[in-house]
């Protein structure tokens, strides 16, 4: 049974949902059902159409590992050597040969020398002796056990051992981590801290990465002024520009900030065309709804672009537009600050990742229990800023929302821990219902 199925309610009746989505990481939003209102496409369908426009950036570059943090591997990286490269000691102690421990202990072995990590000597262990060895030092030929220092007693120039060590104890064998030729990381993997450490362990000083995705963005709206400016009555400070600047501040993105454009079709078209020449992905905010000042759909068409998604059954974010202009994908996010944020977070970021060639599947969602009870109108999948609360006895956290009227309330976002997803079919969320939660990872 779908875990989330039991949370979907329609007319008081529990509906067991399955998603018809073909996406590898679909939203079980219920939007693919008959309840999606006319003219709107489901969140899954919008994503599917957006991703269908994606051709990942083809150009690659070979760069040193110390400049590759956060970049996307263009090809898989394989281990050229076994790891570890050589048998080495897992402990500070004494390298011994079991054959030297004749009869019943205790045994006394003279210490013939010392081997520290980094010593390059490959001399064998002299018969009948022990070598003082340190963690990470190459185990000398002939040695088949390392005895921890604490298990020995030092006396004069020798050590006493009272217990026979196991064969191979405290020796990390060459190749036990990875055999030569094993794939370290697949193409499409982002070089995060763990991936970088693995590449470094395997001696990869250079890696082949895809070039950064170019994302050009601009805000639209004659009412917008930049933060810090004095406002006339009716004007507001531009917040979407700063949300996008922050969201695009990524190692695998080259962001091109094209500023703010008033609601003038000629200026919007000129900016859109310039952006499409400069970028793989063009993102604008505002001007995508149905009002007389919402010019972006007409501007996109006039510039020779095509519209592939016009409205999405999500709340907030209904007037989201996805299209193409020249070689670039175009995303027209709604102007309301929370709507712009949610549509970027849920759909835009996924398209940008696909353009970058990122193929890893990071866990994006957790299961939580509703900490509230609320009736709602079915039809659109909701993404509500929510805060995580306490854990129940099974280790599941509750999530609480302040209100479901969120699209203009930017103040809610900064307080929230993530977005709570309410499937489109649901007509009531009851206390304790299990829901999906998209945590924010950006602080
Ligand atoms: N008759 C209808 N009106 C509206 C509908 C509808 O279906 N029928 N949809 C509503 C929904 S839902 C949304 S969302 C908005 C989206 O409208 P637009 O994308 O055209 O956005 P604007 O009208 O340009 O702006 C909406 C709102 O957001 C403010 N805004 C815009 N840009 C910024 C920015 N960069 N920083 C801060 N705030 C911004 C703007 O001043 C407006 O208040 O349409 C509804 N209307
Ligand atoms: O869809 Mo709008 O984004 O609800 O405010």
UniProtKB/TrEMBL annotation:
The keyword Transferase applies. Residues 216-354 form the MoaB/Mog domain. Its cofactor is Mg(2+). Pathway: Cofactor biosynthesis; molybdopterin biosynthesis. Catalyzes the insertion of molybdate into adenylated molybdopterin with the concomitant release of AMP. It comes from the Bacteria. Gene3D superfamilies: MoaB/Mog-like domain, MoeA, C-terminal, domain IV, Molybdopterin biosynthesis moea protein, domain 2, Molybdopterin biosynthesis moea protein, domain 3. Belongs to the MoeA family. SMART domains: MoCF_biosynth. This is Molybdopterin molybdenumtransferase. It catalyses: adenylyl-molybdopterin + molybdate = Mo-molybdopterin + AMP + H(+). Keywords: Magnesium, Metal-binding, Molybdenum, Molybdenum cofactor biosynthesis, Transferase. It holds the Pfam family MoeA_C. PROSITE patterns: MOCF_BIOSYNTHESIS_2. Its EC number is 2.10.1.1. InterPro entries: MoaB/Mog-like_dom_sf, MoaB/Mog_dom, MoCF_biosynth_CS, MoeA-like, MoeA_C_domain_IV, MoeA_C_domain_IV_sf, MoeA_linker/N, MoeA_linker/N_sf.
